[in-house]
Design a protein that fits this description.
There is one protein chain. This protein has 493 residues and is α/β, with parallel strands linked by helices. Helix content is 40%, strand content 11%. The strands form three sheets. A six-stranded parallel β-sheet has the order 2-3-4-5-6-7. A six-stranded mixed β-sheet has the order 9-14-13-12-10-11, with helices on both faces. A two-stranded parallel ribbon has the order 1-8. α1 crosses α12.
C-alpha cells in the first residue's frame, strides 16, 4: 500500500477517500497526485482524459506510481456512451442492441472484451452497466442505454454483463438505483419523479438490481430521482430509506454504493454539492462521484472540508464516514489483486453483436447502393451522458465502402426540405434517432418519403415509431460499430 503523507489526520483522510473526482487533461495534474498522497483513493476518467489506449495506460501508470491501489473509474458503457473511443465511436454496441439479440452469453462476452480492454489500460472500475428498465418511451436520458422495456430481459442481461466485466478484473458499478427507466426528465438538468406504487417498483425496477447483486456486482450507483413510494422527501441519492433501508437491509447488498455525478442539476441545483455530499454519505452512500463537469482541486477541497466540518458539527456520524471509507478501500484492494484476463480476446465480438442486433424491414424490390449516396442525419440534441463529441450515424462507414458519399445534419421544422435540396439527384439515406420522441423529425421524414419514396431510413435510437422507407434498418444504438453493420446491409453485404 502507498504510504499516506504524514500529517494527514484520519478524519481528513477518510473524507478524501470517499471522493471520486475528475480532472482535465491527458496527464495527471500535480494537485491530483498530491491528493492521492493525502488519502484520495479514487479518480474518475472522462473523454477529455483519453487520447489513445497507449496514453491512457501511461496515465493510469502515473496515478499508480503515486498510489498503487488507486481505483481508476470510467463511464464506459459501450454503445452511445463511450469514453475509450470518444472521438471515433464505440467498437461495441450498447445495451439496447444486446437486449435486441437476447443472447446472454453474447452479452457476457461483449462485457468481458470491454473489461479486458479497460484492464489493459489500467482502468479497474466501470460505472456500468445500466440496469434501468426503459419502461417510459419518452425517457430522454436512458433509451438505448437500457437493455429494453422487459424486466426479466434486463435482469438476465445485467447479470451477464456484471459477470463478464468482473471476470476481466474490472469492478462493475450497476446503475441507476432504484431505476431511472420510468422518467421523462433528464436528471442532468432537473429532478425526475417516478410516481408508481411500491409493488410496481419491486416487480419492475428492482428486479435487475437483485440480479446484479446475485451476480456479485462490486458497486451500485444511485440515481438522482424522487420516488415518493419509497421516500416522499429525498431523492434516492440522499435517502437513507432507499440506500440503507432498501438497498443494504432489504436487498442485502454489501458492496460499494456510489452516487451519480453530484454536479448534476438534480442535486447541485437543489441542495448544492457540499450539502448534497454530506447528505449522501449520511444516507448510506460510500463514494461521491464528482468530476464530469467539475474537475479541479477546489472541488476536492470544498467537498473534503464539507465532510469534515459535518462530522465535527455532529451532522454526519464519524463512524458512517469511516465505514464509507472502509468500503472504498476494500474495493480498491479487490481491484488491485483481481486477476485480469490475459487471454480470451475477442476483438470482433462487438461487430458480431451489432450485426445480430439489426432489424431490417421492407426491402421488397430494394436495390443495394452501388454509388455514393447522400446521407441526411436528422439530429436531435444529444443528452449530456452521451455528449456531442462522439460521431454517430452511417455516413463515415458508407464513405469507406462507397467513396464520395456526402452527408449533412438537419434539424427543426425545415429539416426535410433542406435535406432534399442538399441531396440533389443522389440516392438518399436518412438517419434518425428516436423518431418517436421528436415530432419535427417525423414531419421531416414525411416530407422526404413523399418526395423520394426510394429513401432508405436507418433508425439508430429506440425503434418505437413504425418502420417506413424503401428499406428500414433499426440498429438499436448509434455506436460506430452499429453504423458499420447498417452500412453493410445498405450495399447488399
Amino acid at each position: 500500500m502507498t504510504t499516506i503523507t504524514s500529517g494527514t489526520d484520519t478524519l481528513t483522510r477518510d473524507a478524501l477517500t470517499v471522493l471520486q473526482p475528475g480532472f482535465p487533461g491527458t496527464t495527471a495534474p500535480d494537485w491530483l497526485l498530491r491528493r492521492l498522497g493525502e488519502g484520495l483513493a479514487s479518480v474518475g476518467l472522462f473523454g477529455r482524459n483519453i487520447a489513445s489506449a497507449e496514453q491512457l495506460a501511461a496515465l493510469t501508470a502515473q496515478l499508480r506510481a503515486e498510489r498503487d491501489d488507486v481505483l481508476v473509474a470510467i463511464d464506459e458503457e459501450g454503445g452511445d456512451v463511450t469514453r475509450l473511443e470518444v472521438r471515433t465511436g464505440s467498437s461495441f454496441p450498447g445495451n439496447h442492441a444486446l437486449g435486441a439479440v437476447d443472447d446472454v452469453d453474447l452479452t457476457r462476452r461483449v462485457a468481458h472484451e470491454l473489461g479486458r480492454r479497460l484492464a489493459e489500460c489500467g482502468v479497474n472500475l466501470n460505472w456500468a452497466p445500466s440496469a434501468d428498465v426503459n419502461s417510459n418511451p419518452a425517457n430522454p436520458v436512458i433509451g438505448v442505454r437500457s437493455f429494453g422495456p422487459d424486466t426479466d430481459l434486463v435482469a438476465r442481461h445485467t447479470a451477464a454483463y456484471v459477470t463478464g466485466l468482473q471476470a476481466a478484473g474490472v469492478a462493475a458499478c450497476t446503475k441507476h438505483f432504484p431505476g431511472h427507466g420510468d422518467t421523462a426528465v433528464d436528471s442532468h438538468h432537473a429532478l425526475p419523479r417516478i410516481d408508481v406504487p411500491a409493488d410496481v417498483l419491486s416487480a419492475r425496477e428492482l428486479v435487475p438490481f437483485r440480479a446484479a447483486i446475485g451476480a456479485g456486482s462490486r458497486a451500485v450507483m444511485s440515481a438522482h430521482i424522487l420516488v415518493p413510494a419509497l421516500d416522499p422527501v429525498h431523492p434516492a441519492t440522499l435517502s437513507r430509506r432507499i440506500l440503507t433501508g432498501l438497498l443494504r437491509e432489504e436487498l442485502g447488498y454489501d458492496g460499494l454504493i456510489v452516487t451519480d455525478g453530484m454536479e448534476m442539476q438534480a442535486i447541485a441545483g437543489t441542495y448544492g454539492i457540499e450539502r448534497g455530499s454530506v447528505l449522501a454519505i449520511a444516507a448510506g452512500a460510500d463514494a461521491i462521484c464528482v468530476g464530469g463537469g467539475l474537475a479541479d482541486d477546489e472541488t476536492v477541497r470544498r467537498l473534503r472540508d464539507a465532510l469534515t466540518a459535518a462530522v465535527r458539527a455532529g451532522d454526519l456520524p464519524e463512524e458512517r464516514l469511516a465505514d464509507a471509507a472502509r468500503r472504498v478501500r476494500e474495493l480498491a484492494g479487490w481491484a488491485a489483486s483481481a486477476p485480469t484476463a490475459a487471454d480470451g480476446a475477442e476483438p470482433d465480438v462487438g461487430l458480431t453483436a451489432a450485426r445480430r442486433a439489426l432489424r431490417v424491414t421492407g426491402g421488397e424490390g430494394f436495390t443495394p447502393l452501388t454509388e455514393a449516396p447522400y446521407v441526411a442525419a436528422l439530429a436531435p440534441v444529444a443528452n449530456i451522458a452521451v455528449g456531442d463529441e462522439t460521431p454517430w450515424g452511417v455516413a463515415a462507414e458508407l464513405a469507406r465502402l462507397l467513396p464520395g458519399t456526402a452527408t449533412g445534419s438537419f434539424t427543426g421544422e425545415d429539416a426535410g426540405h433542406a435535406a432534399l435540396a442538399a441531396a440533389g439527384e443522389r440516392r438518399l439515406v436518412v438517419v434518425v434517432r428516436d423518431e418517436h420522441r421528436h415530432p419535427w423529425m417525423a414531419a421531416a421524414l414525411d416530407t422526404l418519403l413523399a418526395a423520394r419514396p426510394d429513401t432508405v431510413v436507418v433508425e439508430m435510437g429506440v425503434p418505437q415509431a413504425p418502420p417506413r422507407g424503401a428499406l428500414h434498418v433499426a440498429t438499436h444504438g448509434a455506436a460506430q460499430v452499429c453504423g458499420r453493420a447498417a452500412a453493410e446491409v445498405l450495399i447488399g453485404g
